[in-house]
Design goal:
- There is one protein chain.
- The longest helix is centred in the middle third of the chain and has 16 residues.
- It is built from eight helices and six strands, in the order H-H-E-E-H-H-E-H-E-H-E-E-H-H.
- The chain has a single domain, classed as Uracil-DNA Glycosylase, subunit E (3-Layer(aba) Sandwich).
- Helix 4 crosses helix 8 and helix 5 crosses helix 6.
- The protein binds iron/sulfur cluster (SF4).
Length: about 270
């Protein structure tokens, strides 16, 4: 059964951008597909500090990937265009998404996240190693608040604000979206700022916490500790904790429990 809907601060449940007081492209409404947005994202060079860092990392590499060619560009979201659940992280990892070109792919955070998505029936396999590894995601879309790998995993507020319109554009193009899982406080804040741009303001602002649930416009926002090594190696975030969050997300999305949790049959490739 669907959990009781959390209180929603009143605004209309449309996806229209009503208060474009932050920088939004004039042609926002021209987006027809997620591919339109991705095409703009992958050529973006709007943040000089992040452009320099993503390219420096790709030149210097790390020993274990010294024979690989890095993507070294911004990383678009990835997943099902009919997703009911969006999962929003912080930014690509320097040697993960910045290397492979796919969000949460090729790093330990992605291993933890996609293993949980597999158990939750949202992915066809428990690993996410490369952009051609056969991963298929159903009912879910994975993205980040910032699309370029930042030094020390810390984007500047100005970089975040410059990048968030891409998330706005992607979320607008998910017609079935009901639930947004925010990974970490940065992702939570990024989603709330995105919702502000979309006209779904919530005051007082809901506070981030693992398992926190808030109604934001037509969506339910669910908080989850970020699956960073810092959190998973220390036990601050465990697989059962991630499973519980994704189970909550499925319930609010009206998906119910996975038919066959984590099975190949539950997600068509
Ligand atoms: S962080 Fe976002 S806005 Fe900045 S360069 Fe990368 S894609 Fe462009």
């Amino acid at each position: 059964m669907r959990p009781d809907a959390p209180a929603v601060t009143g605004d209309d449940p449309t996806h229209a951008v009503r208060t474009p007081d932050q920088t939004l492209p004039d042609d926002l409404l021209a987006d027809r597909t997620l591919g339109d947005v991705a095409a703009d994202i992958v050529v973006c060079r709007a943040c000089p500090r992040l452009v320099a860092w993503r390219e420096q990392v790709a030149r210097e590499k790390v020993a274990r990937y010294r024979d690989r060619t890095y993507w070294a560009r911004p990383v678009p979201g990835y997943g099902d265009p009919l997703a009911r659940i969006a999962i929003v992280g912080l930014a690509p990892a320097a040697h993960g998404g910045n290397r492979t070109g796919r969000v949460f792919t090729g790093d330990r955070s992605g291993d933890v996240l996609f293993a949980a998505m597999y158990r939750a029936g949202l992915a066809n396999q428990p690993t996410s190693r490369s952009s051609d590894d056969g991963l298929a995601v159903r009912d879910a879309y994975v993205a980040a608040a910032v699309r370029c790998a930042p030094p020390l995993n810390r984007p500047l507020p100005s970089e975040r604000d410059r990048c968030l319109p891409y998330l706005v554009r992607e979320l607008r193009l998910l017609p079935e979206l009901r639930v947004i899982v925010a990974l970490g406080a940065f992702g939570w804040d990024g989603v709330l700022r995105t919702m502000d741009i979309l006209g779904h303001r919530v005051r007082p602002r809901p506070r981030f916490g693992h398992g926190a649930v808030a109604g934001v416009g037509p969506y339910t926002l669910v908080g989850c500790f970020h699956p960073s090594q810092q959190n998973t190696f220390t036990g601050r975030l465990t697989p059962p904790m991630l499973d519980a969050v994704l189970a909550t997300a499925r319930e609010f999305a009206g998906l119910g429990p996975p038919r066959t949790a984590g099975s190949e049959e539950s997600v068509a490739s």
